Amino acid sequence: MGLLRRQRDPVLVVAQGDGWLEVYAQKHIDVQVRIAPWCPGPQGELLAQEYVRLGLPYRFRDVYEPGNLRRTELIRQILPSDIALRNDERAVFQELTSWQDYYVPRKKWQLLHKVTTFHHD
Predict the structure, then answer these.
(1) For residue 104, is it within any domain?
(2) Which of 9, 90, 109, 115 could serve as a FRET partner for 24 with CA atoms 20 to 30 Å apart?
(3) Which of 83, 75, 69, 78 has its CA nearest to residue 20?
(4) Global confidence as pTM
(5) CB of 38 within 8 A of CB of 50?
């Protein structure tokens, strides 16, 4: 008998190109957004973390723990030229994928795919 898996509530954070953050979640989700000061070096990082922690409402302080970190991303601008390049790369990939059936029989392609696919745990 399998264990029941608790449904997790989704939260979406969208970083706009101008630095504006938008947080999307169901109405029962409480959200706090804080900006940590930039303090270089290991000691500076500890000071910045303490600054953020002390500025949080008490009920959020237990959430701000390393074990609760769910994901990190580096915010960067995405330019129209980046989107165009991605679309061009996708078109090339789709074209190559369509050639696979012509040049490599399907069963052989599946075997090659299995041999060259790596799974990370």
Answers:
(1) yes
(2) 90
(3) 75
(4) 0.58
(5) no
